[in-house]
Amino acid sequence: MRIIQLLLTAIMVLILSGCGHVHTWEDATCTEPQKCIECGATEGEALGHDWAEATCDSPKICNRCGITEGEALGHDWVDATCETPKTCSRCGITEGEALGHEWMSATTEAPKTCKVCGKTEGDPISVKIYDFSEYYKGYRRGAFNSDLGVFVRYKQEDYGQDIVEILDASDGEVVSSQIITYGEYDGRYAFWGNNFPYSYRLTACDKDPNHQNSRVILLGWDGEILIDDTVPINLYLENNKWNVVFTSDDNIISIVVGDDSKPIRYYNLQTSEILDPGEIDVELLGDVNTHRFSEKIDEPYDETVWSYCDYQPIIDGFLVKRASDEKWGYVDKDFNEIVIYDDATAFCELGYALVSEDRNHYYLIDSDFNKICDLEGDYKSAGMCGGNLFSVCKPDDSYIEVVLK
Ligand SMILES: [Zn+2]
Ligand SMILES: [Zn+2]
Ligand SMILES: [Zn+2]
Ligand SMILES: [Zn+2]
To answer: pLDDT for 356-375, tens place per residue?
Structure first.
């Protein structure tokens, strides 16, 4: 009996000290269930991995334990287009730049169109011909403003005086008549603007023995003289050396003369002020509305080869006249010939020029020198008159106006 009692006591002690403790649980993991760190007893199930799907740059991965499986997917690249860079269709990451459109100029039938994607911008160009030759009889051609529907003609009334008339383009009625007196200035260097808020002229001094001064006259389209100013440089005599750049926004005009590109006059037409140009930076005036009316020679070149040279921003090259045969055409910045015609004009603001291979028929080219359309009729010369206006001379010396839009 005593022995049995001892055995029972021994069993009780064993139960209490060995299998009878309170478990100290360690949390279940992805691969192991909850487990007692003292006795190794387990409870429940392993949690299993909490997978996050593979992405472009990381493999399938467990959110909890960080274990990975397989490989990253890699980007699913879609090639760059005109407007978007190379792009991953999955994650949207981009590499490099969009290719940009490869524009073809508008023609009379089609608007400006991208060769690659076919995107279009704007409208086809319109080439409109205005024939004022009847009204110019006995007069010289002035300027034409197709937006306002008026044009200017003038003739010398007396020495040192011009009669300047503005006519309604629809019926040729004279809307304004004005006598402009330029006195000792010879008036022979005249240039008239189109597509521009003002018509204007420059005249060189004829009687000044030192040829120090020139005259700038700006005329509004209603015939009013807006500016009549003397500038201290002889525009006529220095014809081959000076640059004149007429820059404008709606209200500011500067006349820039000389190699240093500093304006010699700066006009604010809104306030009617004529300002000392001082330190005005011509670059700041912008070039969107820059009207050049002389050869702007940016680089030295061989004057025995080219007898005329006019920089053309649109082709980053020059309009030239070849000295050997007096043919006109275009050269690149290094004076390598691009294409030589019989006659060629400067490029207009829309990026087109008129050329002729026989001085009889003229056609429009774009800035890639592609033929755009023929000009109906026979002509012997053509000139670009600023903006998008060309003046084209008929065999009888009368002019037509060609306006691009
Ligand atoms: Zn335990
Ligand atoms: Zn896991
Ligand atoms: Zn991706
Ligand atoms: Zn495109």
So the answer is: 999 999 999 999 999 999 99
